[in-house]
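ok trying this again, last paste got cut off
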Amino acid sequence: MDSKISFDVTLTLDDYRRFNFAYLYTGLRGVMTIAFGLSFLIGSIILVPSAISRGGSNAYTGWVMVFVAIYFLIFLPFSIFLRTKRMFESDKFLSEPQHYSVEADGLEVTSASSKTILAWDKIFSVRESKNYIFMYLARTKALIIPKKNIGEELDFFIRILLERIDRKKIKIAKPRV
């Protein structure tokens, strides 16, 4: 197989949303956000009916818990959904077609407005999801690469990443031989 891999990516709003939700709802932060929201929901389900039946002051606390649960479980995801649309539409680079080429010294990314080579040792981390490769350039900034765009060379591309990037920085779904 040719040692040079290149592919084109044009991100869609759906790709960008999936990245943002994956970033916010995976790992400890995501588990804690969901657990926090669910604990308030369960607490309010237990507290509100008993407080209402007794006419006690715990009803206020129960209703506050309902609103906190709604915030974490409904409002927060919905606001992310809306915010990602605004961000995607305002950042023309995100929707611009990009050409990726694997080079010896890094990953070359070319678009109509820029051309850069990202040195392998400057890549912060690499994460793989079911449909994407996320190459983080910093803690909150990543290249979003749909696997379908890499095609048949996906396993070869991941092997190259494993060879050229510190293994501690890479989390992949399954090892490639």
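PB: full thing came through this time. Residues 58-90 form the longest helix (33 residues).
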